[in-house]
Amino acid sequence: MPEDEKRSLNFIESIIEEDLRNGKNEGRVHTRFPPEPNGYLHIGHAKSICLNFGIAQQYAGKCNLRFDDTNPETEDTEYVESIMEDVRWLGFQWDKEPYYASDYFGQLYEWAVMLIKKGLAYVDDQPQEAISQQRGVPTRPGTESPFRNRTVEENLRLFEGMKNGEYEEGSRVLRAKIDMSSPNMHMRDPILYRILKKEHHRTGNKWVIYPMYDYAHGQSDYLEGITHSLCTLEFEVHRPLYDWFLDQIIESDYRPRQIEFARLNLSYTVMSKRKLLQLVQQGLVNGWDDPRMPTIAGMRRRGYTPASIRNFADRIGVAKRDNVIDVSLLEFSVREDLNKIAPRVMAVLDPVELVITNYPEAVTEMVSLENNPEDPEAGSREVPFSRRLYIERDDFMTDPPAKFFRLGPGREVRLKGAYIVKCESYETDADGRVSRILCTYDADTRSGTGTKQPKVKGTLHWVDAASALDAEVRLYDRLFMDEDPAGHKDRDFLEFLNPDSLKVLKGCKIEPSLSSVMPGDKFQFQRVGYFCVDPDSTPGLPVFNRTVALKDEWSKIKEKHS
RNA sequence: UGCCCGAUGGUGUAAUUGGCAACACGUCUGACUCUGGAUCAGAAAAGUCUAGGUUCGACCCCUAGUCGGGCAACCA
Question: Å from A248 (CA) to B29 (C1')?
Answer without folding.
Answer: 65
